[in-house]
Fold this sequence. Notes:
single chain; alpha+beta; 4-stranded antiparallel β-sheet; 5 helices; 26% helix; 34% strand
Amino acid sequence: MRLPERSGDQVRIGVAITVPEPYGSVLQAARARFGDPWAEFIPPHITLLGPTVIDHGEIVAVDEHLAAIAARHAPFVVRLRGTGTFRPVSPVVFVQVTDGVPGCERLESSVRSGVLAQELRFRYHPHVTVAHEVPDDQLDAAFDGLADFDASFVVDSFHSYAHGDDGVWRPARDFSLTGSPADAGAITAT
């Protein structure tokens, strides 16, 4: 996993939709079963902002930015179904987001603006990683082993995460989506 370097009082953060229970535990256990060394360090999630380094003094501005975004976006439904991969470009297998992609895209675009504006290396593709940087046979096992995975849930919040010195990503703050359906799309049935 590529992590941006930090120095001085800088902190490494990320922003994500956390996969709720019971699905989060199922996907985390699967990631461990497929031999992914990051399984115990990274909760199952849909990334909105990948690992980013900010100065400690910017935390308040980032939190204010994320709170304003949450106030503009309405809850929406996500469905996770089947698997996909970024191979051969990247050794990753993921569970696909099949419903709720537009909601994820709008949220991601809003998060990656203002104080968190940055260019992407690749086009945004919402997904939940279940195997990363493991041998091909383990990637194949993850791809096949979760091919029938199917879960739906309401996204009514997202989290900022802090990356600890121990390598664990921990939720730092929860941001509830409180916008109206006219603002960013309504909850829709799957």
